[in-house]
Amino acid sequence: MGSIRTKLVLIMMLLILALMTVVGSFLINGVGNFYIDQFYDEMGRTFSQEFIRQLQDTTDEGAEEMKERLMAKAGLGIDIAGRNVYVLDSGGAVLAGSDQTAAVSTTTNLLAALNGQVGQDSSITSPYMDLAVPITGDNASYIVYVLDNKSTVNDLTANVMDIIVQSLIMGMGICLVLSVLLAQILITPLRALSKGTRRVAAGDFSEKLEVTSRDEIGALTRDFNDMSRVLRDTLAAAENERNKLSTLFLHMTDGVVAFDAQGRVIHANPAAVQMLGCDPAKSGGFDEMFGQETQLPQVLDLESPEFVETEKTVGDRSLELFMAPFTTEGSPAGVIVVIHDVTEQRKSEQTRREFVANVSHELRTPLTNVKSYAETMADAAGDLPPELQQQFLSVIINEADRMTRIVQDLLTLSKFDYGKMEMNISRFSFAGAIRDVAEAVAMDARNHGHTLTVDVPDDLPEVNGDRDRIQQVLINVVSNAIKYTPNGGRIELLAGVSGEMVWAKVRDNGIGIPEKDLPRLFERFYRVDKARSRESGGTGLGLSIASEILRQHKGEIAIDSVYGKGTTVTVTLPAADSQA
Hints:
Blueprint: H1 4-46, H2 49-57, H3 63-72, E1 83-89, E2 94-97, H4 108-114, E3 129-136, E4 141-148, H5 151-201, H6 216-251, E5 255-260, E6 265-268, H7 270-276, H8 286-290, H9 296-300, E7 308-314, E8 317-328, E9 331-341, H10 343-379, H11 386-417, E10 426-428, H12 430-447, E11 451-455, E12 463-465, H13 467-483, E13 490-498, E14 501-508, H14 530-535, H15 542-552, E15 556-562, E16 566-574
Parallel strand pairs: 11-13
Antiparallel strand pairs: 1-2, 1-4, 3-4, 5-6, 5-9, 7-8, 8-9, 10-12, 13-14, 14-16, 15-16
Helix pairs in contact: 1-5, 5-6, 10-11, 11-15, 12-13, 13-15
Pfam families: HAMP, HATPase_c, HisKA, PAS_4
Membrane topology: Multi-pass membrane protein
InterPro entries: BphY/WalK/GraS-like, HAMP_dom, HATPase_C_sf, HATPase_dom, His_kinase_dom, HisK_dim/P_dom, HisK_dim/P_sf, PAS
């Protein structure tokens, strides 16, 4: 069916049709039953016991005389259309009747009369009404048979049917008009509701429907307006939350990947793409990305707040994975994987372990030496020659000085790490600082037979900084050049300007540094030649301290070396005139 108007009109039509059908059926049945009851009541009054005795007395006079007596009896005359009276013999043959041309069929009532009983059964479905009464005289027996073909009933029924049909047509016409009007009354607010529903579905909550009645449709309209308002507020709140979550999801540093229950990627934020080194949406799903770490069904079977924690290595990244299921209507709907990049944390842990091991090792060696020499002196007290005893004491003092330098360097680095290193900032001549460093190391260089040359321009710009710390860096670099250059080598101390920066270079032709060791030179306690470094009294912290000092001054230190040929160390600082 189509619209509500069509449905309502059809329902009303069917209703009036059903009503008229029921009423017509009752009327027609009522007319039929009325005439049947009237026929048999009339027959009952006519064939009284006295009238039957009168008929019995006329059996000797013949069938015609009995017919005439019957015709003269009120109610049995031929004035009623379709009703006839017959006199039959005991075998059922017609002897006389009001209709001489009609033949009498054997009926149920006639058979009952042939058997000596009064036949007076009736049925509304039968096309006739009849009565068969056996009349037995002294010398003959007859059957009086009254037959009515219901022509009067049928005519009346036809008239009633015509009336019903006319009433039905008129009722349908009235019903059609009324149903159209009723449908229009109902459809108008429903159309407004339908239009409002489409508008709300499109996201337009600006218009409020007018309530035009106080009936159920009016109540529905008010409820719709309330629903629209609540839905608008709910959607606004949901959109606000979605925007917050989207912003958080987009900019959070942790990676997040969501999978459905089949392991397909639903969403992944940029951090996850960066950490995994690929776009999860273009991958094969959960099994391809994390199947080696855990299985999807294992995570889906977890109950909140349970989760699976595991790790994954992607290239040089160490990733920590937290996997937990999410549900929809109580059933597992998928898995969310939160990814933490713990690469730096793992490196820090490794560095911390190496640092502790290095500190322990660096301090254990001088402590062992101090203890050994002290025990030897204690065990041989008074027996050692003064010269040997003095040598032992010198070793103890040197090892104590070495431990002191290690502790001081560690304290210096610790102050840098926690931002507690105090700097005496001033403007000073960078050229003068370089020349002072050259004078400070000149004797050490001569002791090793090195040639130390200094090439520093007089117009080298000044710098802002802690002069003592800058000189400490330069002395450390030049001292390394002296230590790791074989005796008789050449060491150059150069300086210059590059844009807004000044630089100082220390170049030697010493043993050089292997290429594999260059990236680790500024790590704490790292030494290229550990045995030789310890022999020269190095702690492995000098370059780390130098790097921190220059970083505090917004400068840099770079090392360029060819193994076996020499090393060049460049220290760069901002010129004073370029600084605010």
